[in-house]
């Protein structure tokens, strides 16, 4: 019996997802198996191999990604993890969108409360 759980997330760009995960210090395998309880596996586009054998995967469904993992074996708070991933993903999406529209990134800083401030500008 599989113990895998999926969580729909608002992520559409796999490249930015991978960049966010790597920025947070997670090693990322592409097109790999997500390991779970009793050797059960599932496929995902991006997989974070975890030392305890219970991996975290991100699988594309339609135009979005979902997290897939055996939650029973994860040794982390999934809500906190997803919060960090989504913040880093959003940061990369804003930076990419701004540069695509011709803006220059003037400053980027992490505030004391954990929020990220990005200042962009463009010569008119």
Give a verbal description of the structure:
The protein has 124 residues and is of the alpha+beta class. It has one domain (4-121). Helices cover 27% and strands 37% of the residues. The protein is built from two helices and seven strands. The protein has helices at 14-23, 78-100, and strands at residues 4-8, 29-35, 41-48, 56-61, 64-70, 104-110, 116-121. The radius of gyration is 16 Å and the shape is elongated. The model has no long low-confidence stretch (mean pLDDT 93).
Describe what is shown at a glance:
With 124 residues, the chain is an alpha+beta fold. The protein has helices at 14-23, 78-100; strands at residues 4-8, 29-35, 41-48, 56-61, 64-70, 104-110, 116-121.
Can you count the helices? 2
Helix content: 25-40%
Average residue pLDDT: 93
Distance between the termini: 61 Å
- As residue ranges, the low-confidence spans are none
Question: Could you spell the SSE succession in H and E letters?
Answer: EHEEEEHEE
* Major sheet characteristics: 5 strands, antiparallel
Structural class: alpha+beta
Spatial extent as radius of gyration = 16 Å
Number of domains: 1
Silhouette: elongated
């Amino acid at each position: 019996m599989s113990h895998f759980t999926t969580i729909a997330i608002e992520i559409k760009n796999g490249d930015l997802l991978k960049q966010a995960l790597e920025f947070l210090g997670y090693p990322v395998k592409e097109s790999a198996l997500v390991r779970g309880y009793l050797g059960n596996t599932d496929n995902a586009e991006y997989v974070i191999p975890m030392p305890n054998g219970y991996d975290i995967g991100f699988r594309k469904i339609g135009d979005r990604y979902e997290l897939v993992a055996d939650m029973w074996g994860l040794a982390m708070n999934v809500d906190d993890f997803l919060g960090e991933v989504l913040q880093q993903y959003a940061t990369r999406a804003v930076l990419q969108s701004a540069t695509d529209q011709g803006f220059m990134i003037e400053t980027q800083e992490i505030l004391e409360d954990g929020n990220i401030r990005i200042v962009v500008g463009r010569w008119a």
